[in-house]
Amino acid sequence: MKMILLRDFEFQETKFDKLAVITDQNFDILVLPTLWSVHLFNIGTSHKVKIKSNGQTTEEFLEEADLNDKTITSYISKLYSYLKSLTGPIDNQLANMTVVRVNYYLNEVLPEREISLDTLLLSKSALTSFFNFLHTLGICKKLQFTISRKTKKRVDSNSKAILKIKYVMKSIRAKLLQSCPNKRDRLILRMGYEVGLRAAENVGLILNDAKMRNKTQKGLKSLFDELDSNPSKLRFEFYLRGIYAKRGKGRWLYFSRPLLEDLKDYYETERNNFGEPQTSYLFVRTDNSNEAKVISVGHASRIFRNLLNQHMPTLKGQYSYHDLRHTFATELYHSELLDENGSETRSASAALHVVAERLGHADIDTSKIYIRLQHQMVMLEGLPPSTT
Q1: What is the rounded (10 degree) CA torsion for 360, 366, 367, 373?
Q2: What CA–CA distance (Å, rounded) separates 382 from 388?
Q3: Which residues pair with 253 in a beta bridge?
Q4: Which residues is 65 bridged to in the sheet?
Q5: How far is CA 34 from the centre of its chain?
Q6: Measured between alpha carbons, how far is 146 from 124 in angstroms, rounded to an integer?
Q7: Are 316 and 309 within 8 A, CB to CB?
Q8: 114 pLDDT band (50/70/90 cuts)?
Q9: C-alpha span between 248 and 335 (Å, rounded)
Q10: Range in 5-19, 31-45, 162-176, 224-238 the model is least confident about
Q11: Whole-structure pTM over 0.70, yes or no?
């Protein structure tokens, strides 16, 4: 089964910015889900049950309510997940669907996936909207689904477990960056979610070249020079020495050109205000004697915590600097696994090997948590889901 997200698509003089087309395992288009997709992306409404009463009698009817783009994308994603649980001729099953079958999916199948309560309720809303749409076309009976109190309690306990590993949304990162008092701390935050550094590893960003095992490893100054000498280069390698990494295991870090340009700008401006410190470390602070010294190994964690507590107090205690590293790995896994339309470009195992290498994990099983986090990220950011 595949879901293909079309962009800037036109059909019979109707233009779509986006349109999701779902196919079965033989790549034949599933008619009923695609009809709903056309309705959502063209009309942008959901069919909801309303009750009208005149004091003596009550009447149920379907009313259309507007949906925003993020909800539409989420609804399509939840329907797609449900379709993957079906076997056999899917359009025929959808036309003859029963409440019992959908309730079984909501109350038994989904809770096994360790989803949050919000995700479960969103799935119910999406499936309700879809089958209400089919009912308006006269294709199926009106169906009303329920989630039991027992299921809600079970999923709520799952939600608390999921919160132990977090993905930090882009909007939260943006606000934290805006709240930073200086270039150094903004860059330290970015090193977490753009490079995957642990908090203490920020100390290991060295300016000068270093000789290791008869081979010279480039320091940041050499990389800064490459920005000018090689203007077409987009990614730059830096070796984080084992002395600064967890368990003494060094690894290669990869800087995007914009990030390296900002590191150079910090070095030439804000850091240069200290004069030329004798230390070869990039990130420095001043002590009581106003002498520039390398930041402490706990500096990144401290600034993250202080910024969150001061500028986003409702999130106090919910995130740590290490969650930025999880965020980096989650987004890397997503980009390695899927293209911009949500179609797989490689196997999950191959994508996880890339994540493990970039994080410095010796065991790929350690990186498997990012499969679950990727699903969480897709939901939070409203991205195209995986089409497996």
Answers
A1: -130
A2: 18
A3: 238
A4: 46
A5: 26
A6: 8
A7: yes
A8: low
A9: 28
A10: 5-19
A11: no
Task: List the end-to-end C-alpha distance of the chain, in Å, as a whole number.
Answer: 7
Burial class (CB in 10 A: 0-12, 13-18, 19+), 173: middle
The rounded distance, in Å, linking the Cα atoms of 209 and 280 is 10
pLDDT of residue 388: 43
Written as six digits, the tokens of 326 are 């999880």
Query: How far apart (Å, rounded) are the C-alpha atoms in residues 76 and 116?
Result: 18
The two structure tokens encoding residue 354: 């890339």
What confidence score (pLDDT) does residue 16 get? Answer: 74
Domain boundaries, the chain: 2-164, 170-380
Contact predicate 271/263, CB 8 Å: no
Strand pairing report for 58-66 and 210-212? unpaired
The single residue listed with the structure tokens 């595949």 is 2
Q: What is the mean pLDDT of the chain?
A: 84
Measured between alpha carbons, how far is 380 from 34 in angstroms, rounded to an integer? 24
Task: Kindly give, in sequence order, each residue whose CB lies less than 8 Å from that of residue 116, ignoring residues fewer than 6 positions away.
Answer: 155, 158, 159, 162
pLDDT at 380: 73
Strands 14-23 and 58-66: unpaired
Q: Are strands 45-53 and 14-23 parallel, antiparallel or unpaired?
A: unpaired
What does each C-alpha distance from 386 to 305, 341, 361 come to in angstroms? 33, 9, 24
What digits encode the pLDDT tens for the residues 200-248? 999 999 999 988 777 888 999 999 999 999 999 999 999 999 889 887 8
What architecture is domain 170-380? Orthogonal Bundle (1.10)
Q: How far is CA 110 from the centre of its chain?
A: 20
